[in-house]
Specification:
The chain is of the alpha+beta class. About 40% of the residues lie in helices and about 20% in strands. It is elongated, with a radius of gyration of 28 Å.
């Protein structure tokens, strides 16, 4: 839980720290220069986050579990894309009279960028 910013003196040097509270009142102070290490927790279901104890290992275990799940997903994606790369694709033929008639029936004037994009897509499909 965020407690605020406080100035702490260590060996005669005053620095600003962000104070965060954990379960059982344990606190940690992080130099404001390292505030990028903190991020706000936003629950997808609107529930308040469960506080961990500072050194009980629960957070480390949860973090490792998430890391393992992310690695599993990455492995699955690598396998999927590897399988997809082995499949033979379908090449569309060049525009015929029907396609030209369809293109001509478009009721708007395309911009140069739109025309270029259409041509690039058609090239990719052949």
């Amino acid at each position: 839980q965020y407690l605020g910013i406080e100035t702490i003196e260590i060996k005669g040097i005053h620095r600003d720290y962000v104070s965060v509270q954990y379960q059982n009142g344990d606190q940690i102070s992080i130099p404001v220069e390292q505030i990028h290490l903190l991020s706000k927790y936003i629950s997808s279901d609107g529930k308040a986050p469960k506080l961990n104890k500072l050194n009980d290992g629960h957070f480390k275990k949860a973090k490792q579990k998430v890391k393992n799940q992310v690695e599993d997903i990455a492995d699955d994606l690598i396998k999927l894309y590897s399988e997809r790369s082995q499949l033979k694709g379908f090449a569309f033929s060049a525009d015929d009279d029907d396609q030209d008639a369809f293109d001509d029936a478009f009721p708007y004037v395309e911009t140069d960028d739109q025309l270029r994009s259409i041509e690039e897509i058609k090239r990719d499909m052949q």
